[in-house]
Amino acid sequence: MSDTVNRQILLVEKPIGKLGPEHFKMVNGKVPEPKDGEVLVKARYISLDAANRAWMHGATYRAAVEANTVMAGGSIAEVVASKAPGLAPGDIVFGDTGWQDYAAVPAKHLTKMPKMEPMTHLLSVYGIAGLTAYFGLLHVGKPREGETVVVSAAAGSVGSIVGQIAKIKGCHVVGIAGGKDKCHWLTSELGFDAAVDYKDGATFKALRAAAPKGIDVYFDNVGGDILEACLALMNNRGRIACCGAISQYDGMPSAHGPRGVPGLIVVKRLIMQGFIVMDYMDQSAAALADLQSWVASGKLKVQEDVIDGIENTPKALIGLLAGENRGKRMVKV
Hints:
- This protein folds into two domains: about 5-125 and about 305-330, Medium-chain alcohol dehydrogenases, catalytic domain (Quinone Oxidoreductase, Chain A, domain 1, Alpha-Beta Complex); about 130-280, NAD(P)-binding Rossmann-like Domain (Rossmann fold, 3-Layer(aba) Sandwich), CATH 3.40.50.720.
- The chain has nine helices and 16 strands.
- It has helices spanning about 50-55, 130-140, 160-170, 180-190, 205-210, 225-235, 260-270, 285-295, 315-320; strands at about 5-10, 25-30, 40-45, 70, 75-80, 90-95, 100-105, 110-115, 150, 170-175, 195, 215-220, 235-240, 270-275, 305-310, 330.
- Strands 3, 5, 6, 7, 8, 15 and 16 form a seven-stranded mixed sheet that branches.
- Helix 2 (about 130-140) packs across helix 3 (about 160-170), helix 2 (about 130-140) packs across helix 8 (about 285-295) and helix 5 (about 205-210) crosses helix 6.
């Protein structure tokens, strides 16, 4: 392998404000040699997530990404060489390989994946996005038939699946997304009952019209002003599943949390819970069985946004943060 080039995308400096192409550069590195207990993998599809941006700020549930290192990120990869039992060349795995062609990763940090076509589904509906939607909605939000479920960033990788699962469970589903096209897509293609365009500016008014009976479950991907608008419309004993805060990731100094929260939580007896999908991985087999049956029956539509070429990864992440994508965005290496 020594004559093969390993293209790597480095984070050359941590952004203070908005993320831009100037914060990255592509270099040609060496293909690493796996040590005992490690596996050499070749990335096939790199996952792009809003969390990538959060990692640049500092430690989250993982260590911060430091300047002049390979940008961190999960990918679906193929085993090239293995010095660990249980993994052999040709196996397909998911792991944090970073933005590069090849990585040597401890086998214990890799998850062996089933072989399936399209392989992209392993990153979207059967990957972190699908599992995040499933556990966050069903285990944290706990919607009951007939309740109103609202989801923000509803056209994104997680939100688009959350809304569809809520429909499968018999709920009235309202999606919040940016732009008329996305809103139309949610109601016409994905079966949402209503969609609210936050770019219109009258989010609260539109939400109140779309959820006349109030909100029982809010799946929050954005934080900030939209969380504030939803809090005011929550019903007694409503549940809020906190998945992310995109509005506060990309260097917006004016970003603020919702105001008046403690009083509302007390008066309405709300439950507001953050979660990380890793907490539920021991139950992933049951979740995947449900997701697979819904996809097979056509109840759950899978939308993916695949961008070609590792060199386009920075631009693809910047676009994701600006809300360009519909469904799960990833880069075909």
